[in-house]
């Protein structure tokens, strides 16, 4: 028997309504102090997650959202015993309380934007050909030719990045003031210009939707995807991280290395 | 004639539905796979390799420092054979 | 039972294509199989070498942009960069590694390169 978890909720009460989760097992609340974790007990650990499981996981969280504030738990988070689950709740209690308060009555919306990277690049290349850069490199040798090509690629890429930033700023402008928080992921692929998540208060959700309608109707070659309301996946912030042999804390590590580098630079400039 | 058109329409709506389902699944995965309450560590790199990567990054840091120092002398390192 | 969640787009196919590309890049476990261990280690080492090489190239481009280099210096730089790129290509072939494989996923921070 394992305990499959769906979300952390701001209630220690039993869940009135019958909610069915993975493998058709009912969802119940395991309470810890004044909060709880919505779970269902599975006979054995999932060998693999199916599409249906993913949909079910999401469905359970969204149903819970109609009654509680929910911190969605990542897919396939499983505990072997109730004691382990409660230890976790104890460890993260403050974090959970903070997040539940912050995310109360809010939902996440997603805006994705696609552009034609090839078209943009071509436009840049055409413009570049017309006004040759000040720096001229005469190609007399393979080394010089190599550098010249690299340099052109560099200039084109630089302009491409700047165009992306400009474009993203225009899109973000529609939603910036309506949302409480935002997370923008730029150029996850060349064509996926923007993958944005916005945290929006319940009362402003219609306004947010209207803003998208306006954005949608602006002239241009951008493609849009609007989704929501979602559970606040992108806005759960945990300050506490587990100390586990298997866990590679990249963020911590990189911050430390960067801090060291900062010191190194200071030393050099003295 | 009418029946042919109807079949085509059905096929398109079927495809649209499948695409919509696919989009829905992808949108959910975009969030539920690695966002939200993430409390179990990702077992991406085993312990031995963690040390290796850490060391590797430390080596990188030294190289960057060296690069910074060399910035004064234009490509002084270019004289030597790159290791 | 679901909320009034909507997913609206004018181009399902385009988004399916791009999002699938993104989700393909899930962190993969480095194989502990002894046969593959060497390849795994080579991948790590070469990834970092590749990072340094790319940083060097980027730095070189910035200097050219700044216009502070003589033709001779550009020539020297070009030779070094060309050698480095060719060497990397050799090493990749020796270990049977592709460009896309030389990357590190830093979890929440995205990919290294």
Structure summary:
The complex is a heterotrimer of chains A (270), B (83) and C (113). By secondary structure, chain A is of the alpha+beta class.
What does the largest sheet of chain A look like? 5 strands, antiparallel
Oligomeric status of the shown chains? heterotrimer
Instruction: Describe the main β-sheet of chain B briefly.
Output: none
Which residues of chain B form runs of ≥5 with pLDDT under 50?
A: 41-68, 72-83
Overall number of domains of chain A? 2
Q: In terms of per-residue confidence, which ranges of chain A show pLDDT below 50 for 5 or more consecutive residues?
A: 243-248, 263-270
H/I helix tally of chain A: 6
Give your account of this protein's structure.
The complex is a heterotrimer of chains A (270), B (83) and C (113). With 270 residues, chain A is α+β, with helices and mostly antiparallel strands. Helices cover 43% and strands 22% of the residues of chain A. Chain A contains six helices and nine strands. Chain A has helices at 51-65, 82-103, 117-130, 142-175, 205-216, 250-269; strands at residues 2-9, 28-32, 35-42, 70-72, 78-79, 106-114, 181-186, 192-201, 223-230. In chain A, the strands form two sheets. In chain A, strands 1, 2, 3, 4 and 5 form a five-stranded antiparallel sheet that branches. In chain A, a hairpin with a 2-residue loop joins β2 and β3. In chain A, α3 crosses α4. Chain B has 83 residues and is an all-alpha fold. Helix content of chain B is 66%, strand content 0%. Chain B has two helices and no strands. The longest helix of chain B is centred in the N-terminal third of the chain and has 31 residues, at 2-32. The model of chain B is unreliable at 41-68 and 72-83 (pLDDT under 50). Chain C has helices at 12-24, 34-66, 71-95, and one strand at 6-9. Chain C has three helices and one strand. Chains in contact: A-B, A-C, B-C. Chains A and C meet through α1, α4, β9 and α6 of A and β1, α1, α2 and α3 of C.
Fold topology:
The complex is a heterotrimer of chains A (270), B (83) and C (113).
Chain A: E1 2-9, E2 28-32, E3 35-42, H1 51-65, E4 70-72, E5 78-79, H2 82-103, E6 106-114, H3 117-130, H4 142-175, E7 181-186, E8 192-201, H5 205-216, E9 223-230, H6 250-269
Antiparallel strand pairs in A: 1-3, 1-4, 1-5, 2-3, 6-8, 6-9, 7-8
Chain B: H1 2-32, H2 47-70
Chain C: E1 6-9, H1 12-24, H2 34-66, H3 71-95
């Amino acid at each position: 028997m394992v305990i499959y978890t769906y979300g952390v909720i701001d209630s220690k009460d039993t869940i009135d309504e019958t909610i069915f989760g993975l493998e058709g097992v009912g969802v119940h609340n395991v309470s810890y102090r004044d909060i709880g974790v919505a779970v269902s007990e599975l006979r054995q650990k999932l060998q693999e997650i199916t599409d249906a499981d993913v949909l079910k996981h999401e469905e359970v969280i969204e149903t819970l959202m109609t009654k509680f504030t929910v911190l969605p738990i990542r897919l396939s988070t499983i505990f072997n015993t109730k004691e382990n689950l409660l230890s976790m709740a104890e460890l993260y209690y403050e974090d959970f309380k903070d997040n539940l308060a912050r995310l109360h009555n809010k939902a996440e919306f997603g805006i994705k934007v696609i552009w034609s990277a090839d078209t943009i690049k071509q436009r840049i290349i055409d413009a570049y050909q017309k006004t040759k850069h000040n720096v001229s490199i005469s190609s007399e040798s393979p080394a010089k030719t190599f550098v010249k090509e690299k340099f052109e690629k560099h200039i084109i890429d630089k302009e491409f990045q700047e165009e992306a930033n400009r474009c993203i700023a225009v899109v973000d402008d529609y939603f910036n003031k309506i949302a409480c928080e935002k997370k923008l992921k730029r150029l996850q692929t060349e064509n996926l210009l923007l993958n944005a998540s916005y945290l929006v208060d319940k009362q402003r959700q219609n306004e947010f939707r209207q803003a998208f309608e306006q954005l949608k109707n602006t002239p241009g070659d951008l493609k849009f995807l609007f989704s929501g309301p979602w559970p606040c996946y992108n806005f759960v912030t945990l300050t506490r991280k587990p100390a586990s042999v298997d866990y590679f804390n990249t963020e911590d590590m990189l911050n430390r290395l960067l801090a060291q580098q900062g010191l190194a630079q200071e030393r050099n400039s003295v | 004639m009418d029946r042919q058109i109807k079949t085509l329409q059905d096929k398109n709506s079927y495809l649209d539905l499948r695409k919509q389902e696919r989009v829905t699944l992808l949108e959910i995965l975009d969030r539920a796979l690695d966002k939200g309450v993430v409390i179990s560590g990702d077992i991406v790199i085993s312990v031995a390799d963690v040390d290796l990567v850490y060391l590797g990054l430390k080596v990188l840091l030294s190289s960057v420092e060296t690069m910074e120092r060399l910035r004064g002398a234009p490509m002084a390192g270019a004289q030597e054979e790159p290791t | 039972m679901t909320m009034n969640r909507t997913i609206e787009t004018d181009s399902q196919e385009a988004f399916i294509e791009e999002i699938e590309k993104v989700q393909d890049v899930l962190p993969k476990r480095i194989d502990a199989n002894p046969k593959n261990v060497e390849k795994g280690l080579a991948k790590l080492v070469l990834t970092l070498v590749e990072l340094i090489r790319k940083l060097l190239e980027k730095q070189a481009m910035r200097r050219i942009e700044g216009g502070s280099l003589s033709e001779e210096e550009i020539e020297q730089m070009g030779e070094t960069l060309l050698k480095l790129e060719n060497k990397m290509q050799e090493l990749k072939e020796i270990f049977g590694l592709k460009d896309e494989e030389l990357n590190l996923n830093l979890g929440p921070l995205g990919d290294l390169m």
